[in-house]
Amino acid sequence: MTQEKKERQSNFELLRILLMLTIPVYHLMLYNGVFYMDYHKNVAPGLFLSSGGAITADYAFIALTSYFLLESKDRPVIRRFLTFGAQVLTLYVIRFIVIRGLWGFHSGNWFVEDYILGGAWWFVAPYMVLLLVYPWLNRLMERLSRGWHGMLCLGLAIWFVINGMTLQMNFVNDLVAFLLTYFVMGYLRRDDYRRWIFPTGKKWMAGIYMTGFLFTFFYAWYVKMPGVMANDDAANLVVKHLIGKYAPLQFVMGLAVFFFFRALRLRQSPLINRMAKSVFFVFLLHETVMGVYWYFGKINGQYPYYSVAGFWGWLVVYAATCLLVGIVAQKLYTGFLAPLWKRGIDAFCKKCGFQ
């Protein structure tokens, strides 16, 4: 494998921002059942916003994370793990206080209990596992021959496809999705990422993404039309396979998005680089924002039936609120809580002999 230093450039930081904005939008569609209800005027825009959005974004972000972790052999693993864990814990406490403060402890509201507090933070747990084990994974890939590395990727891919067919969503299968992405990125690194299905230039990657997006959107829209499927449950099952968490096409599209932005050449932008620091805060707090809006009777279960202007208008307001809350939370956390956590983590690592 080649050793190549990776610098965080504005093209990657812009990618982080765009990826994290798609996730609140997708969950706005998902939690309100925009494309799981009977066919109505907002099904098509809901599918349009989701067909190449959050699940694609998840895999693009895992690919981006893998791209840097594959070069991070000597980083202090425990310190990095604890630093990220402290951030996650802080934002979970904020979510708990805000949502329970508004809704109470016995709300009886399915949205609050199953989604907001049940959590769609599926990304977080396997990511934290990856932070603990990536040095050993990197060493494993260095020792594997190209053939055995490819067989490992194939085995994980088969497992991943089976998960997508059965729709069995749990932590183990989430971890499989992460490991598949990580090992595939490691395999592509052997040839300096020159090829992913096709050469990794912008045109090829844009073509892969747009083909996948258009197929997903139009086919999902078609099956949702009245009379196409036996009933709406059958149509929804097709949609789940197309844009579900383990959808193979979404995986391919996610890697295509990553490689498109890798090939994109942007001038360094201090504004983009600063805004990108807030992306995890946007991700971890957007459900809290949605819970607050829902409490005040906005973008709640009636959102699928809003007028066209209301549908798009509230979407923009919600996405902008998520971004603003993420930026403010990041500034406050960095200025006040992060130094306190750092002192505690430094003391712990020193006492335990970690780097």
Automatic annotation (TrEMBL):
Coiled coil (UniProt feature): none
Domain of life of the native organism: Bacteria
Transmembrane segments: 12-31, 43-69, 81-103, 115-136, 148-165, 171-188, 204-223, 243-264, 276-296, 311-333
Alphabetized Pfam families for the sequence: Acyl_transf_3
Domain Acyltransferase: 11-327
One Gene Ontology term of the molecular function aspect: acyltransferase activity
Descriptive protein name: Acyltransferase family protein
Keywords: Acyltransferase, Membrane, Transferase, Transmembrane, Transmembrane helix
